[in-house]
Amino acid sequence: MLIAYAWGLMAALIWMVGPAGGGGYWKDMALHALAIGFVMTMVIAHVCMIVPSITRRPMPFHPVLKLDLALVQAGLVLRLLGTIQSLTGLWQSGDLVSILGLLSLMASVFLLTVRSEGVLERKRYLRMHGASASSSPSERPLAWSGWLPDRHRKAVMGVSTAVTALILLAFSLIAVGLPGGLASPLGGAQSEANAGAGQKAAATGSGAMVVPTGRTRRVDVRVSGMSFSPSTIRVNAGDRLVVDFSNTGDQRHDLVFASGQGTGVLPHGGHARVDLGVITASTGGWCSLPGHRQMGMVLTITAAGGAARTAGQSWEPVGNAAVPIAAQAKKFAGSVQPFDAGLPALKPAPDGLRSCTLVIRECREPLAPGLTRMVWSYDDGDDPRGGKGDTRPMSPGPVLRGRVGDTFHMTIRNEGSMSHSIDFHAGPALPERMMRPIEPGQSLEYTFKADHAGIWMYHCSSEPMALHIANGMFGAVVVDDGTLPAVDAEYVLTQSELYLGGDGDGADPGKLAAMRPDLMAFNGRPYQYDAHPLTAPAGGRVRLWLLNAGPNLPLSFHLIGAQFDTVWSEGRYLITQPGRTDAQLAAPATGSPASKALALQPAQGGFVEVTIAQPGRYPFVTPARLELATYRLEVWRLDYI
Q1: Is the peptide bond before 588 cis (omega within 30 degrees of 0)?
Q2: Half-sphere exposure (Cβ direction) of 57: Cα atoms closer than 13 Å
Q3: Who's near 510: CB < 8 A, 6+ residues apart?
Q4: Are 406 and 424 in contact (CB under 8 A)?
Q5: 393 cis-preceded (ω within 30 degrees of 0)
Q6: Whose CA is closest to 628, among 551, 515, 547?
Q7: Residue 383 above 60 pLDDT?
Q8: Which of 41, 427, 532, 562 could share a disulfide with 448, CB 3.0–4.6 Å?
């Protein structure tokens, strides 16, 4: 009884302290400790009282019952050790030992009940005549008396022994011979088996027949970073598989299987169950959110004794591209509105506070006739894009402008379908607070102080970060210190790379990882400033703010047919004319320093200034990918009047 109480206490502690409610081996331990450890041990302890009350025959205690108890306890210990260590053979052996112990208990109870009167008479005789009486077999009383005639007792005893031996042999063969043995795998018992599964057979992709075993395997799958835990499930062919998925990550995820079943997109803390039915071949699943599968969110299901893979199913990343030729992209760019590249005017900021609302959107955007791509963007809450008749590109986000010392109070509202976030490079912020995931339908208040001048990037920082940026989640913040001289035209140009997937899809993660873009774009749309040239007066001075949003390749920005007399990059002047007046800057002296290009790594920014006296069309290019220069690189032209 003390052993039974110990198992009962263990089961109670597991249910109260351990995560038994989440399934897995904790639930397995709790159920076995309660069902076998407590209940069966308590039954064995009281068997000498229970059986006589049912059969109306005495049943004396016999030391063989201790052996039965020891077998049951040893099997339970082996089961729990095998479960914790994930050793299939160990917990199957434990189940076999427990079953043998229970069958041995049944046989012992039967034999002791049948021979009860004889055993009791024998004990009484020994107490009366002493132990020496056992030396003379002829003087011993008959071991059998009571309810059976003498001529049938030996036959009954022989049949009982034979039946018991056959039962033990049958259970042994089943436990050893069938795939998976008698035990249900981690996470649950044998339950909810498909009706009639034992009478049907399923064909694998190789043509072999897999007979449903009638067993159910339950597995808890959780999210750990950007991967599933466990990442591999091993199941015996013919077993039914039920997956309990819990999103323990910090953003939205789902789990889609090659069979087409799935959990749907779940927020942090969400839970869903998927019944995959009888597993006949190896298969798998993945997170279908863009880029998550390529980051490692893949689940492999291996079927022991089944086909290598179910016919027609694949869970590996598949690339698909639809890339327009230059003529198509240029023609389309001429038929729609361009992104306004002009530097926004500096608005009044009472007490240096600037407030703005950015709205996260996910939408399909035309790229060429009959071809679209998925764009994720930060839209201006005060000037939303994408309305009727509005053909401006949805990316990049609006250009924000301020002065050194200004405080920016940003409201970020997520109207998309997945978790997003934001990171402003223009000011310091606590990442775990300001850059945390924003769930769909939720908002984030982000405040930072612009202490330094420059052009700064803002972007989504949710994993995979490069994919979120490649899909359009970036923008620029221009902060100046008020010392820059006035110019005749001032523009903001943000370069980005396009890794095109299939028609209507987002960026291709495989191309992104290989750093092989299909197109380069300024301000989100290829060739838009070839069709809609930027303008400046002849002889006027132009300042071009430049930001490389990447996410992968460097920017080498230069103006064909002209030179930059002022170059500023990452907080310092590379070339300038110190001490000159605005009038002198408009016409730099011959022989003064100049540059042909401004080189920027991803997330870096700067500006260049140039004065061109002769009217004409001057292309802007970036030779980051010379092999694309003939028709896939963005070409900007300034049309000087």
Answers
A1: no
A2: 17
A3: 294, 317, 319
A4: no
A5: no
A6: 515
A7: yes
A8: 427
Output Rg (C-alpha) for the chain, integer angstroms.
39
- Locate 390 and state its tokens: 């509005």
- Tokens 């001429």 — which residue? 334
Between 317 and 444, where is the model more confident?
Answer: 444
Is 542:489 a contact under the CB 8 Å cutoff? yes
State the amino acid at position 281 in one-letter form: A
Count of beta carbons in the 10 Å neighbourhood of residue 498: 23
Q: How far apart are CA 465 and CA 457, in angstroms?
A: 14
Q: Is 493 helix (H, G, I), strand (E, B) or coil?
A: strand
CA distance 308 to 305: 9
Secondary structure of residue 436 in the 3-state scheme: coil
Q: Give 421: exposed, middle or buried? Use CB within 10 Å, 0-12, 13-18, 19+.
A: buried
As a whole number of angstroms, the distance between CA 267 and CA 264 comes to 10
- In order, the DSSP letters of 88-139 are HHHHHHHHHHHHHHHHHHHHHHHHHHHTHHHHHHHHHHHHHH-GGGGG-GGG
- β strands within 265-406, DSSP E: 271-278, 283-286, 298-304, 353-368, 371-380, 400-403
Peptide bond into 554 cis (omega under 30): no
Q: Tens of pLDDT along 438-495?
A: 999 999 999 999 999 999 999 999 999 999 999 999 999 999 999 999 999 999 999 9
- Nearest residue to 392 (alpha-carbon basis) of 487, 278, 472: 472
Q: What angle do CA 498, 504, 509 make, to 5 degrees?
A: 45
- Please identify which residue in the block is written with the tokens 């959990």: 263
Residue 398, CB-side half-sphere exposure with 13 Å CA sphere: 18
Beta bridge partners of 490: 543
Sign of CA dihedral 451, 456, 461, 464: negative
CB distance 306 to 280 below 8 Å: yes
Q: Are 277 and 240 in contact (CB under 8 A)?
A: yes
37/42 Cα distance (integer angstroms): 8
Q: What tokens appear for 629 in the block?
A: 């220069």
Helices (H), 522-616: 528-531, 582-586
Length of the chain as a residue count:
641
**Cβ distance 552 to 602 under 8 Å?**
yes
